[in-house]
Amino acid sequence: MSYAVAQIQLPANLPDSVKQQITAYLAFQRDSLQKAQNPLPAPPRIFRYNVALTGAVNEGNVNRQLLMFRSDFSWAGKVLELDLHPRFAYGKQNGQLAEREPYIDALVNVWHQRKFYGFLATNMEASHLRGIRFRWLGGVGVGWHILRTPNVKLSFTNLLLHEGTDFITDTDLTLWRSSARLKGQYNLFKNKILLKHWFYLQPSFTVKNFRWNGILSIEFPIYKSLQFRINVEDIYESLVPEGRQNEDRTISLGLSLGSR
After folding, report:
1. What is the average per-residue pLDDT within 211-220?
2. What is the Cα–Cα distance from 155 to 212, expressed in whole angstroms?
C-alpha cells in the first residue's frame, strides 16, 4: 500500500504563523506515513569467527615439536550472544608425548548489548601436561562492558562455578570457585596491530585451591582476513598431581584466519 500527502495551496491572506503551523503539521503526517510504510529493519544477527594454527619446533639438546589449534566462534542476536572456543594442543619432547590438551568452552550471554548483562558458562578439558584426566565446570555470572568503541573493547565478568576434576592419580576434586575475568581487544595504529587478552583469577570457596590463567595474543594483518599471530599463555594451579609443575608457560607463533 502506498500513501501520498496532497500538496495544499494555502490562501495568501493567512498569517505567516498559521501557514508555518499547517506546513509543520503536514510534514509530520507525511513522515509518520512513511515510517509506517517502511518500518526500521530488525538488528542484524552477527556471526564472527577466528581460526588460528600456531606451532614451535626446537632441535638440539631438546627436540620439541608443538602444534596448537585455537578457534573462536560467536553469534549475536538482539537478546542472546553465543560464544564457543574450542582448542587443541599436541606436542612431543625427545620423541615422547608431552602435550595432548583438548579444551572447549561455551558461553550464553543474555542482554549482551547492555552495559551490565548475565551469562551462563561451561567448559570441559583434559591435559596430559598437567595430569588432568577430565575436568568439567559450569556456572552463572554477570558481566560489565567497561568500554566499547570501534577500536577498544574491554569487559569484566565474575562467575560462580561448580567444578569437578579427575586427575591421573585417581584423585577426585569437587569444589565451588569464583572466576573473575578481564577481557580486552584493541585495534592499534589504524588496525595494523590487534591486541587481545584474557586474564582469569579463580579462587576456591570450599577447599584451598587457586588457579590463574592469562592469554595474550598479538596479530598483524597480512592479507584481508589472514593474520600473523604471536600467542603467550600462562597457567598456574596450586594443586597438581605429584611430579607436575604448578605453572606452565607457552609462547607460539603462527597464522590466524577470521573476522576482526
Report:
1. 94
2. 18
Co-location of 73 and 152 in the same domain:
yes
Q: Which cell is 205 given?
A: 570457596
The single-letter code of the amino acid at 200 is: Y
In terms of domains, do 18 and 94 share one?
no
Contacts for 108 with CB less than 8 Å, ≥ 6 apart:
80, 81, 82, 83, 119, 120, 121
C-alpha cell at 42: 530488525
Q: What span, in angstroms and rounded, lies between the C-alpha atoms of 137 and 72?
A: 19
Who contacts 178 (Cβ-Cβ below 8 Å, separation ≥6)? Answer: 158, 159, 160, 161, 202, 203, 205
The pairing of beta strand 226-237 with beta strand 132-148: unpaired
State the pTM of this model: 0.76
Q: Say whether both 88 and 26 belong to one domain.
A: no
For the chain, give the percent of residues with pLDDT over 90: 52
Residue 52's DSSP bridge partners are 70, 256
Give yes or no: residues 114 and 217 share one domain.
yes
Q: Residue 130's domain spans which residues? A: 46-258
Residues 6+ apart with CB under 8 A from 80: 108, 109, 110, 112
As a residue count, the chain comes to 260
Report the percent of the chain where pLDDT is more than 70. 81
What does 185-222 look like in DSSP terms, one character per residue? EEEETTTTEEEEEEEEEEEBSSSS-EEEEEEEEEEEEE
Q: What is the CATH number of the domain that holds 66?
A: 2.40.128.130
User: Rounded to whole angstroms, how far apart are CA atoms 198 and 202?
Assistant: 13
Same domain, 54 and 32: no
